[in-house]
Specification:
alpha/beta; 7-stranded parallel β-sheet; two-stranded antiparallel sheet; 30% helix
Amino acid sequence: MSPPSGILGNMGKSGLVDYHLHTPRCGHAVGDLEEYVARALQIGLSEVGFSDHFPLLHLRDPSLSMALEELPEYVGEVSRLAESVSGVRVRLGIEVDYLPGYEERTAEILAAHTFDYVMGAVHFLDGWGFDDPRYVDGYRGRDLYELWARYFQVLGDAAGSGLFDVLAHPDLIKKFGFRPREDVTHLYASFLDRVAAAGLAVEVSTAGLSKPVGEIYPGEDFLRLCRERDIPVTLGSDAHSPREVGRDYRAAVALLRRVGYREIALFERRRRTSLPLPD
């Protein structure tokens, strides 16, 4: 199978990264880790990061995340892979749900492992899994403005928690296309002030293009506010199968360049560096 043309394909090593790859341990992804890496090599990525779902501390659902006892196995599996492959760097990441009240326990578990980066995310608001298709009816009858305000308040709390290096898919609340009628620019701005103060990066995720909203996370207006605040960005596909690695990256690079970004953030042992975007 020949590699695709464009940003990823004809250029050899593109200099691009995909820091959001999942594994079957989360219960809703498929494919061996080696297959994800093979796909990254095929399309010319320079670096990938596995960032599977951290064990949920408030509930046990094997269709959403690995169990706590699996975390050392996941760390070992990715670390061994990183040592055995050539042609692409493999980073050890983790995607952690920010759960108010669980900060201390989360920090304790994270400290037991040497991650290259820790991604923070909010998938639950007051116990409701708002991005889970099983619970999409929960949007019905809600005040969407208040819902969005609540989401960005909680995600802002995540930014200030000291737990994370990157915030994943930062406007995930738009996933199913339920948007307030009101202007939410000030919600973005207030939230991003907190992100900038905390010194975090945000993920530009192409996953939203394949969701009902049909838009990159975050959207252009949001990303322009990030750029105004010099907030670093990473790239991710949120791949749950090998074929999704690096998907829609041409659109992501075009968006980043359009709003003024010229580099992306890289991580190693929780230290951030940067790399120029390809021409």
